[in-house]
Amino acid sequence: MTEDVRVNDRLTIPAAELAWRFSRSSGPGGQGVNTTDSRVELSWDLLASDLLSPALKQRAAERLGSRLVDGVLTITASEHRSQLRNREAAQARLAMRVGEAIAPPPRQRRATKPTRGSVERRIGEKKRRSQIKRNRRGTED
After folding, report:
1. Region for residue 104 given its phi and psi (left: phi exceeds 0; alpha: psi -120 to 50; beta: otherwise)
2. Is 131 helix (H, G, I), strand (E, B) or coil?
3. Predicted structure pTM score
4. Contact yes or no for 98/13 (Cβ under 8 A)
5. Three-class SS string for 18-86?
6. What are phi and psi for residue 57, nearest 5 degrees?
7. For residue 79, how far is the Cα from the chain centroid?
8. How far apart are CA 3 and CA 72, in angstroms?
């Protein structure tokens, strides 16, 4: 069952680098919850892996900072009743977290000024609104 985790088009984490642990889940499952090890912990040693370049490792370590324990990223899944579905959920979550962590930073927004037309439309709408509210008031005698 252990298979590689595909993060994106360029990065796939091999199954040999993944560590699985199973335990009893506290979630749904009826009587079977007391006997089956359906809770899944998936661990990947990010800092020891040779998959990422040093720059990507540093970026991922900074972004995953609080989630890493000694350079190891651990994902837990226990929302499903079956171990197989929890394994799939943990793999998907690991791929998502690593993908977000190594993604390039977003482009900086270049500050721009509003156009003259948009400023005029905004001020015109404010004047119309204030006129509507002024007309609602009763005449003060």
Report:
1. beta
2. helix
3. 0.70
4. yes
5. EEEEEECCCCCCHHHHHCCCCEEEEEEECCCCCCCCHHHHHHHHHHCHHHEECCEEEEEECCCCCHHHH
6. -60, -45
7. 17
8. 19
Question: Which two structure tokens, joined as six digits, stand for 86?
Answer: 């929890």
38 by Cβ neighbours in 10 Å (0-12 / 13-18 / 19+) ranks as: buried
Residues 52-66 as b or e (16 or more Cβ within 10 Å = b): beeebbebbbebbee
pLDDT, tens digit, for every residue of 15-61?
888 888 888 777 555 666 566 777 889 999 888 888 888 998 899 88
Which amino acid is it at 34?
A: N
What are all long-range contacts of 109-113, with beta carbons under 8 Å and residues at least 24 apart? none
Quick check: helix, strand or coil at residue 9? coil
Neighbours of 86 (CB within 10 A): 24
The Cα 37–Cα 35 span in angstroms is 7
The DSSP symbol for 92 reads H
